[in-house]
Amino acid sequence: MANTAPLALADSGLWRQEALVDGEWIGAADGRTIAVDDPATGEVIGTVPDCGTAETEAALAAAGRALPAWRARPAPERCAILRRWHDLIMAAAKDLARILTAEQGKPLVEAEAEIAYAASFVSWFAQEGQRSRGHEVPAPTADRRILVRREAVGVCAAITPWNFPAAMITRKLAPALAAGCTMVLKPAQQTPFTALALGELALRAGVPAGVLGIVTGEAKVIGGVLTASPVVRLLSFTGSTPVGSRLMEQCAPTIKKLALELGGNAPLIVFDDADLDEAVEATMAAKFRNAGQSCVAVNRILVQSGIHDAFVDKLAVRVRALKVGAGTEDGMQVGPLIDDAARAKVADHVQDALAKGATLVAQAPASGRFTAPMLLTGMTEDMRAAQEEIFGPVAAIYRFDTEADGIALANATPYGLAAYCCTGDMHRAWRVGEALEAGMVGLNTGAISLAMAPFGGVKQSGLGREGGAEGLEEYLETKAVHWAGLQTGG
Ligand code: SIN
Fold it and tell me: Of 67, 105, 229, 261, whose CA is between 20 and 30 Å from 98?
């Protein structure tokens, strides 16, 4: 397929259909490609190389060669390059959003918001990277000094998902580069073009050859090479818990550091004393962003009996009013799900819930490739949607009576990524916030994704944190340097 964009871009150079290895744009050695389609239409929008072992190993070798010079560069120099990358991303935000919507489906306004969110990680780590500090430990004898240094982990690998094709990349890549690491990135097969455009901008910003490699293709093949490689010292992955667990196993023989942002089953508890409008707003934000395709999307809405009916009535009005359609159309609020399998899974969850006694209270108009946003009440713990991520625009309501019941229901899951609580009582907010088993808690808000705050989960939702000061720590190792025999006189 010709290297021309299927959509109008101000900067057509952002439309790349090759992999990035050692600073060069390449095809697969055997010429094989993978088609990428627009989830709103099912039409193919372009192809990318079907990279295999050879291309992945070449990218890793280049990352290894580039590492000594990159980590030796003063942090302010590395961070200045990141700052330029940030500025180029923001200058190209409209084009990047068009590419993102074409391959992922989300409404253009949401895609633009994601680009700004993605860029915020780059600017955050361009600053944070200059603040990584070691320290000195008091030594046991006068002739000794002990310095604790923070050093780049080395060559890193990242495997990123399709639901946030820009932000999940910068959240890994920016801290890695700021810390002095190099990285080979494998973007999701469904959404490689946003990654490749970000790679093009990284080169323009001055990221040297080899410091960033991007290999497109099948996850199993490329993931197998990345996890087996002794060159890779850290693997960062965002995706499902079963895949995360498999990658962990594959990384065990070479003892890699792991940063895993895995599945969730987020509860949102609405107490009787909550501000009704605020609670509905928080629910809409936490449920329908990206058509519910987010690890921090509210999966279970737990509503106390006293406010239950009023809350359901208000939420139903909002759900019926949602505009569903192609992300490129003006005014759309909910786009298509990523593929047939995603649509089938959501439909199964709804069927299962209805068969077990749930009630469909409200639905927005939608047809064809688009899944209708729905509001279900009468949900119970035996339903599939209570135990698995719905990953779709279905708001599922569970009724509870006491605070203790609400907390117990919220924590009745092996996952612990995000949890939310709406209440007007600040004592309860703290009590419940502390009792929730989750890496992130939203109190009277459904929006918790910010570059300056650590993002990640407990229990089976993962290991490590992205964003915040903690996000840089993942890419740093500690080295204790002992100096002995010093004649200091002290
Ligand atoms: C995710 O779904 O994995 C991340 C979403 C976010 O950053 O808000």
Answer: 261
Measured at the alpha carbon of residue 208, what is the angle toward residues 251 and 132, in degrees to the nearest 5? 65
148-167 in b/e form (b: 16+ CB < 10 A) is eebebbbbbbbbbbbbbbbb
Ligand 1 within 6 A of CB of 241: no
Beta-carbon contacts of residue 475 (< 8 Å; ≥ 6 apart):
152, 153, 156, 175, 176, 178, 179, 181, 234
> Per-residue pLDDT averaged across 173-186, rounded?
98
Q: How confident is the model at residue 6 (pLDDT cuts 50, 70, 90)?
A: confident
17-46 pLDDT, tens per residue?
999 999 999 999 999 999 999 999 999 999
| 217-247 pLDDT, tens digit each | 999 999 999 999 999 999 999 999 999 999 9
Active site (annotated) includes residue 295: yes
Q: What phi and psi values does residue 396 have, to the nearest 5 degrees?
A: -115, 120
261 in catalytic set = yes
Is 295 close to ligand 1, i.e. is its CB under 6 Å away? yes
Cross-strand pairs, 257 = 234
Strand order in the sheet with 359-363: 359-363, 374-377, 394-400, 298-304, 266-270, 418-422, 440-443
Helix (H, G, I), strand (E, B) or coil at 315: helix
Query: What pLDDT was estimated at residue 442?
Result: 98
Helix (H) or strand (E) holding 268, with range, is strand 266-270
From 112, 261, 466, 474, the catalytic residue: 261
The H-assigned helical ranges of 291-339 are 305-320
Is there an atom of ligand 1 within 6 Å of 296 CB? yes
Indicate which residue's Cα is closest to atom 3 of ligand 1: 295
CA distance 183 to 172: 9
Name residue 162's amino acid: W
Integer angstrom CA distances of residue 279 from 35, 122, 269, 287, 315:
42, 32, 9, 12, 9
* Residue whose C-alpha is closest to residue 474's, from 68, 128, 84, 61: 128
Give yes or no for residue 160 CB within 6 A of ligand 1.
no
Tell me the helix, strand and coil percentages in the chain, rounded to 5. 40, 20, 35
> How many CA atoms are closer than 13 Å to the CA of 473, on its beta-carbon side?
11
Q: Which two tokens stand for residue 456?
A: 């990640």
Q: How many CA atoms lie within 13 A of 144 on its CB side?
A: 10
Distance of alpha carbon 127 from alpha carbon 82, whole angstroms: 9
Label residues 303-335 b or e (16+ Cβ within 10 Å = b): bbeebbeebbebbbebbeebebbbbbeeebbbb
Distance in angstroms (rounded) separating the CA atoms of residues 232 and 155: 5
